[in-house]
Amino acid sequence: MFINELLNIKYPILQGGMAWISDAHLAAAVSNAGGLGVIAAGNAPPGWLEEQIRTCKKITDKPFGVNIMLLSPYLPEVAEVAAREKVSVVITGAGNPGKYVAGWKAAGIKVIPVVPSLILVKRLERLGVDAYIAEGGESGGHIGEMTTMVLVPEIAEYTKLPVIAAGGICDAKTAAAAFCLGASGVQVGTRFILAKECTAHENYKQKVQGAKDTDIKVTGRVTGHPVRVLRSPLMRRLARLEYASDAVSRIEREAAGSLMKAAVHGDRENGSFMSGQCACRVNKYQTAEEIIKEIFDAEIMKNSLMNVKGGFEI
Ligand code: TUI
Q1: Do 123 and 171 fall within a single domain?
Q2: Are 312 and 305 in contact (CB under 8 A)?
């Protein structure tokens, strides 16, 4: 099954949940354009999430999702807000969502965990999740070790559930490749940072637009939470700290709040500009609708959707 059928949307595309970047405005624009828009809860308090969900419901009558970041200090409370507000879909990231799945399912919510490896799929298979997002390390932010090219077919060959490919997907050719790898849908993050409806600070957008491949780095490997970011003064400080004897605590202290500084305040010195590798290929400011149409109207996508298991015509 393709995920547009599962999620009751027109195109098999999800917008990546990007903390401090994907709010109600971006999510509603993506949903109104026929994809699945996603509000990212990140580290935000439950009141913020509730307000965003209510705003999104006012701007769109289409399904949308909430991304729950499992390292959030407000995890129990934001998990409860998503259930109470009965959003269509909960996507989880940065951990094992095991103990929350039953509660969301009981609220009639579809649950789609991000999985960085097959081992997590094996643990989740019996819990009744609806699909997986196989997210390769080409993605922005917190990443696993595997590449999209290997992870997507590995998971698609193992599970009967739909697999959504993420990491490195930003246009028709990369999306078509994902369907060829066995995906039933794609998740696109970085490209939506340049969506006109995205409220991220202009400095963030400019950094994504101007990024060269050599500007895209991974920091924080020693902390156990590697994070892909764009080159910046903060990134250089964090990279140097990796060699300090008390690296973990110093990196965590220096990085705390830095994503908000970048996305909300556009702080070029102290901000963390998380981004996927495809930033070097993303440079057009477009509406969410233009982005989605450009991907799915391309001839290569039409061919790929028709040729892949039980294909369909958009
Ligand atoms: O979660 C993301 N991307 C993120 S979260 C984030 S906020 C943050 N900032 C600094 C440090 C940590 C988080 C920024 N970007 N993507 C989904 C994702 N999930 N990537 C990797 C994973 C993941 C990792 C381990 C999912 C499950 C997992 O399970 C481990 C286990 O417990 O089995």
Answers
A1: yes
A2: yes
Whether residues 221 and 94 fall in one domain: no
- Do 79 and 223 fall within a single domain? no
- In degrees to the nearest 10, what's the CA dihedral of 217, 16, 300, 297? -130
Token couple for 106: 């009981």
Q: Name which residue sits closest to atom 22 of ligand 1, judged by CA.
A: 94
How remote is the CA of residue 141 from the centroid of ligand 1, in Å?
Answer: 8
The answer to whether residue 305 sits within a structural domain is no
CATH number of the domain that 53 lies in? 3.20.20.70
pTM > 0.90: yes
Residues with CB under 6 A from ligand 1: 19, 69, 71, 93-96, 114, 116, 120, 135, 141-144, 225, 227, 274
Pocket test for ligand 1, best of 66, 74, 114, 121 (most atoms within 8 A of CB): 114
* Interatomic CA distance for residues 2 and 306, integer angstroms: 12
Ligand 1 atom at minimum distance from 67 CA: 1
Per-residue pLDDT of the chain (314 residues; tens, 9 = 90+): 789 999 999 999 999 999 999 999 999 999 999 999 999 999 999 999 999 999 999 999 999 999 999 999 999 999 999 999 999 999 999 999 999 999 999 999 999 999 999 999 999 999 999 999 999 999 999 999 999 999 999 999 999 999 999 999 999 999 999 999 999 999 999 999 999 999 999 999 999 999 999 999 999 888 888 999 999 999 999 988 888 888 888 888 888 899 999 999 999 999 999 999 999 999 999 999 999 999 999 999 988 887 666 666 67
> Do 70 and 139 fall within a single domain?
yes
**248 and 293 both lie in a single domain:** no
**Residue span of the structural domain in which 219 resides:** 202-278
Q: How many independent structural domains does the chain possess?
A: 2
What H or E segment, with its residue span, contains residue 182?
Answer: none
Q: What is the DSSP string of 47-69?
A: HHHHHHHHHHHHH-SS-EEEEEE
Residues 270 and 162 reside in one and the same domain: no
